[in-house]
Amino acid sequence: MKLPVFDTAGNRIREIDAADEVFAIEPNGAVLHQAYVAQMANRRAGLANTKRRGEVAGSTIKIRRQKGLGRSRQGSIRAPHHVGGGSAHGPKPHSFAKQLPRTMKRLALRSALSNHARNGSLFVVDGLAAPDGKTRTVQAILDALKVDRRAIVISGEHDPSLARAARNIDNVKALPAQNLNVVDLVNAHHLVMSEDAVRKCEALWGGANVKPQRGRTREAV
């Protein structure tokens, strides 16, 4: 597919060819959702902890005798229905980690990139850099492209000066192409990429890295 290229002043100057298997597939919403949920779940520490009736402080003696008082039957003061008693079904530390096959992760990334390309929210910028490390340099590029919502500025390789220039702008994150992830791509309203970043994405998730779809065939009898 063709992606338009803009200069730092926001003018469309040319087009480049981009791999269809990375930027022009039909987005798979189900896989995208699974990858998003898995990544968010993997961020959870799972440290919530409550004490059960065997872990709280308190006497183990029976509160009162079983019969003859006309009152309810009660055992330990540490039972969950007593004030200060243990929790009956409270959380315990455990892992929320979810594992996805590598092909599903790659399909989710390609679906997110293709969705941005199809919606016109992906901008390829010639000369996307901030060698002076100044926030106003990146802000001027975003203003020229009319990017006023959450955005990701993507470079081909890690660029410390670009990251330093973008980190002080609200709702803007600077990432190298290899660090792209589903959550950031889905949450972003705009992607601002260098041409090197486009080629890096193609090298990472296109070409030989795309697993062909195999369908079952039935042999004729």
Automatic annotation (TrEMBL):
<comment type="similarity">
    <text>Belongs to the universal ribosomal protein uL4 family.</text>
</comment>
<protein>
    <recommendedName>
        <fullName>Large ribosomal subunit protein uL4</fullName>
    </recommendedName>
</protein>
<keyword id="KW-0699">rRNA-binding</keyword>
<dbReference type="InterPro" id="IPR013005">
    <property type="entry name" value="Ribosomal_uL4-like"/>
</dbReference>
<feature type="region of interest" description="Disordered">
    <location>
        <begin position="67"/>
        <end position="96"/>
    </location>
</feature>
<keyword id="KW-0694">RNA-binding</keyword>
<dbReference type="InterPro" id="IPR023574">
    <property type="entry name" value="Ribosomal_uL4_dom_sf"/>
</dbReference>
<comment type="function">
    <text>Forms part of the polypeptide exit tunnel.</text>
</comment>
<keyword id="KW-0687">Ribonucleoprotein</keyword>
<dbReference type="Pfam" id="PF00573">
    <property type="entry name" value="Ribosomal_L4"/>
</dbReference>
<comment type="function">
    <text>One of the primary rRNA binding proteins, this protein initially binds near the 5'-end of the 23S rRNA. It is important during the early stages of 50S assembly. It makes multiple contacts with different domains of the 23S rRNA in the assembled 50S subunit and ribosome.</text>
</comment>
<dbReference type="GO" id="GO:0005840">
    <property type="term" value="C:ribosome"/>
</dbReference>
<dbReference type="InterPro" id="IPR002136">
    <property type="entry name" value="Ribosomal_uL4"/>
</dbReference>
<keyword id="KW-0689">Ribosomal protein</keyword>
<comment type="subunit">
    <text>Part of the 50S ribosomal subunit.</text>
</comment>
